[in-house]
Amino acid sequence: MAPEAHKLSAEHLSEARSGILADETELQRINEIVSPLVKRGQSIHHIYATHVDELMCSEKTICNYIDACLFDIGNIDLPRKVRFRPRYKKPEFKVDKGCRIGRTYRDFMEKHPDYPVVQRIRSAAVMAVLCCSQFISLKQGLMLAFLRKANTSQPVIDIINQLYYQLGRNNFERLFPVVLTDNGSKFSNPKSVKFVPDSIGRTCLFYCDPNSPYQKGSIEVNHGLIRRISPKGRSFESLAQEKIPTKEKS
Asked: How many whole angstroms separate alpha carbon 66 and alpha carbon 75?
C-alpha cells in the first residue's frame, strides 16, 4: 500500500540522517587536541580560537561532542557548563547512520523467529569513565560482562573480536548466531560486528524498537539484579575484569 511505503521510506530517511556527522577516527583526532587543553584549565572558546584551523569544526560542535560523552573529558571538566540545565536531548554518535535499515526488531522476527539469540546491554558508569557491556545467551543460559574504558563502538567490537578468536569460528557462530541490542551508538557499526577483519560473516545483528526493553527482557532483568549491587551512578573504577565472574544459570 502507498501509505505504508511512504511511512517506511520516511523512517529510512530519518534513520540515515540522524546522529553525528563524523567517524571515530575524526572524533579521536579532535579529542586529542581538545581534552588535554581542557584538563589544563583552558576554556572551549579559547581552545577553538587558537586551534580553529586544526579542529575544522565549529565551537558548538565541540560542545556537542563533549555533551555526548565522546571525549576523554565531560561536562564536569567545564567549570561553567555544570551550572546550566540541559536544554535539549544529547546528540548521539552513530558510526553508520543507516544501521537500523533492514535490522529492526520486525526484521528479526521475520528472518530469525526461532533462532537462539544473544541479548546485549550497556551500563554506563559515572562520567563514562568506565563502562560495562553485558551479553546473555538465552540458549546456553550464559551471561558475560566486560569492562571497557571508552563509551564508543570500537571497544565493543574489540570484545567481539576477542571472543571470536578465543572461541574459534565454529564455536562463536554456534553461541552467537544472532545479536539483539538496543539503539545506542555502541552497536552502530553493524558491519564490524557481523564480519571479522577478513570479511567472513560470523553473526547477525538486529535492534530493538525504541523504548521497548521488553523485547530483550532477559538481559534487562539481569541488569536490574546487577544494579542492586552497583546502583546507577556508582563508578565502576573499583572493579577489575578478573573479578567479574561469568554467571551461568543453575
From this structure: 7
